[in-house]
């Protein structure tokens, strides 16, 4: 009996020892997989920047600009303290990207400083407004009678400015945009003061019964009238589309491309898009012929558009497409899908107002469905339904959910979460890359599916062409709308929404071209590492998802084991234009 107990005890202890050994964690590996020598600096930079951004909220306030210039210069000194040669590979990537962020921030602050100086010359009382807002932040007792007198003076000044505005031919677009921004900042500053004291401080409340509202309305009017005058002086008026954006210009495009590590000129990027468009044209004709429409692909696309589902059935259709997509990705073992990521995505409906800017569904952890409501006119309903048909939507379910935006967000929260090097070339490029590899793996089931997926590929090419031509000053918004209708096959209302979204939807100038260019970068890296046999497709996709968001060239540095130079400049020509 004793021997049996002893043996059983020994087996139990051995089993525990075996389990413990199997469960041992490689602590150094765990640390290395989530951090680098710069992790703490990056975490502090983000937190410090957040604190300052919440405190200095007025974009063109000289106080904010001066403070943020000093802040970024301080972190530049902290970065210089690192011995670059002693950093790990991923530490060198973090160093390179923080240096890029600091340089970019200082460049934007310099532009803000120039805008603030020109706007303050136009409205010199701005300094007094900012001073009042600064005192308010710490609850100083206001000299209400003095402030009321100042507001009266500011109102008189603005009234005089507005009287002479129509005859002022000196107001150009840079000044117009600067004054528009400054007017908004001054309104926010005065609103901050007024909402703090009004009704609480008896003296302020008595003195400001009319003064605040008057100066606020005049600032609002001045901002609108000055930008209107600037557009008339520069002939940048409405071309009939109702869309008036702000072209960036070639110099600014080149600056931003450099910051995004894209070593191509705007003209070269248009040439890339045209080459990719030619491939789409060839595939579109092949699908059209298979459907019996010969070379008239517009008729083939009309048939595809008319496969829209009945009213109320769009969520059901999207769920079916998701199930097909996720099953295909799993069957081909293309990427690791965490169970909680698959469990927690959900749907919601997009408002009619939002659909004017986003005519197609959007995604992430929440998939937002764009589909007509009872309040829309008949023509708008039909265009929305036709533009969101099952074959068009087939390309975008995995773009928005898994392995696109939802999985990206999920993994970013769990891997190198201190990194905040977000770029649309990574965000949108990765999602479009999945459209490309699912096409290559045979996800489209027939010519109708191929036309639906090609519509989106053509759309991404068109985005490069119309957005760059607009920002280069070559095209007007209406030309962009017509291009999407004639060249891609968009419904006109959806084309208008797309162009409006691109130019007045607060998207940066490179955002729309980043889809295709980022996807081509990922595809080029896949060819380098997967098609060459160095990694499997799943290993490659998993590795990308574990690095968090950053320019694709930096992911290339990590996955190939080749660290960026200390004075890194972009040099990866990922696309052959020949």
In short:
With 578 residues, the chain is mainly alpha-helical. It has helices spanning 2-23, 27-34, 39-55, 62-80, 89-122, 126-137, 144-163, 173-197, 202-207, 211-234, 250-259, 266-290, 297-305, 314-331, 339-344, 352-355, 378-387, 390-393, 397-400, 405-412, 424-440, 447-471, 477-488, 492-504, 511-529, 537-545, 552-560, and strands at 346-349, 366-369.
Describe the protein's architecture and organization.
The chain has 578 residues and is mostly helical. The chain folds into three domains: 34 residues; 115 residues, no CATH class; 307 residues, no CATH class. A two-stranded parallel ribbon has the order 1-2. It is globular and about 75 Å long. The N terminus is likely disordered.
How would you describe this structure in keywords?
single chain; 578 residues; mainly alpha; 3 domains; 2 strands; 67% helix; globular; disordered N terminus
Intertermini distance: 84 Å
Q: Number of helical segments?
A: 27
Mean pLDDT: 92
- Computed Rg: 28 Å
Q: Count up the domains.
A: 3
Largest beta-sheet characterization: 2 strands, parallel
Order of helices and strands: HHHHHHHHHHHHHHHEHEHHHHHHHHHHH
Strand content: under 5%
Q: Stretches where pLDDT falls below 50 for ≥5 residues? A: 1-22
Structural class: mainly alpha
């Amino acid at each position: 009996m004793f021997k049996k107990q002893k043996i059983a005890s020994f087996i139990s202890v051995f089993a525990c020892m075996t389990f413990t050994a199997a469960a041992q964690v490689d602590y150094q590996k765990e640390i290395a997989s989530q951090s680098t020598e710069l992790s703490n600096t990056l975490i502090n930079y983000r937190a410090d920047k957040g604190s300052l951004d919440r405190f200095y909220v007025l974009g063109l306030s000289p106080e904010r600009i001066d403070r943020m210039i000093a802040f970024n210069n301080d972190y530049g000194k902290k970065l210089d303290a690192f011995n670059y040669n002693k950093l790990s590979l991923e530490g060198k990537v973090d160093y390179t990207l923080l240096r890029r962020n600091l340089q970019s921030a200082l460049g934007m602050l310099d532009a803000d400083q120039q805008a603030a100086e020109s706007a303050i010359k136009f409205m010199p009382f701005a300094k007094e407004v900012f001073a009042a807002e600064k005192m308010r932040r710490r609850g100083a007792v206001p000299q209400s009678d003095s402030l009321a007198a100042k507001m009266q003076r500011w109102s008189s000044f603005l009234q005089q400015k507005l009287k002479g505005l129509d005859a002022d031919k000196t107001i150009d677009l840079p000044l117009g945009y600067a004054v528009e921004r400054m007017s908004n900042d001054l309104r926010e500053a005065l609103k901050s003061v007024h909402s703090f004291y009004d009704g609480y401080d008896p003296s302020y409340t008595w003195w400001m019964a009319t003064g605040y509202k008057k100066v606020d309305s005049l600032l609002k009017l001045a901002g609108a009238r000055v930008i209107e005058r600037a557009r008339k002086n520069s002939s940048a008026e409405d071309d009939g589309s109702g869309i008036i954006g702000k072209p960036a210009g070639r110099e600014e495009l080149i600056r931003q491309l450099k910051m995004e590590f894209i070593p191509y000129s705007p003209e070269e990027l248009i040439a890339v898009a045209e080459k990719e468009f030619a491939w789409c044209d060839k595939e579109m004709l092949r699908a059209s012929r298979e459907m019996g429409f010969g070379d008239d692909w517009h008729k083939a696309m009309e048939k595809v558009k008319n496969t829209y589902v009945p009213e109320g059935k769009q969520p059901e259709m999207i769920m079916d497409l998701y199930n097909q997509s996720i099953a295909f990705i799993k069957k081909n073992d293309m990427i690791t899908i965490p169970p909680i990521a698959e469990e927690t995505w959900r749907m919601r409906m997009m408002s009619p107002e939002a659909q004017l800017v986003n005519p197609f569904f959007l995604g992430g952890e929440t998939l937002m469905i764009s589909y007509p409501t009872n309040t829309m006119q008949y023509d708008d309903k039909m265009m929305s339904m036709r533009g969101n048909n099952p074959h068009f939507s087939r390309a975008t379910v995995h773009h928005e959910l898994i392995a696109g935006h939802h999985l990206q967000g999920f993994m970013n929260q769990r891997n190198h979460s201190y990194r905040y090097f977000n770029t649309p070339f990574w965000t949108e490029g990765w999602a479009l890359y999945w459209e490309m590899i699912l096409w290559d793996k045979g996800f489209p089931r027939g010519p109708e599916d191929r036309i639906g997926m090609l519509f989106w590929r053509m759309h991404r090419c068109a985005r490069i062409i119309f957005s760059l031509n607009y920002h280069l000053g070559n095209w007007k918004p209406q030309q962009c709308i017509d291009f999407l209708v004639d060249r891609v096959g968009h419904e006109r209302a959806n084309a208008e929404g797309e162009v409006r979204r691109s130019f007045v939807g607060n998207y940066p100038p490179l955002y729309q071209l980043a889809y295709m260019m980022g996807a081509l970068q990922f595809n080029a890296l896949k060819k380098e590492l997967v098609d060459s046999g160095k990694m499997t497709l799943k290993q490659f996709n998993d590795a990308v998802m574990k690095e968090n968001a950053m320019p694709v060239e930096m992911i290339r540095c990590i996955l190939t084991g080749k660290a960026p130079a200390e004075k890194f400049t972009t040099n990866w020509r990922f696309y052959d234009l020949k």
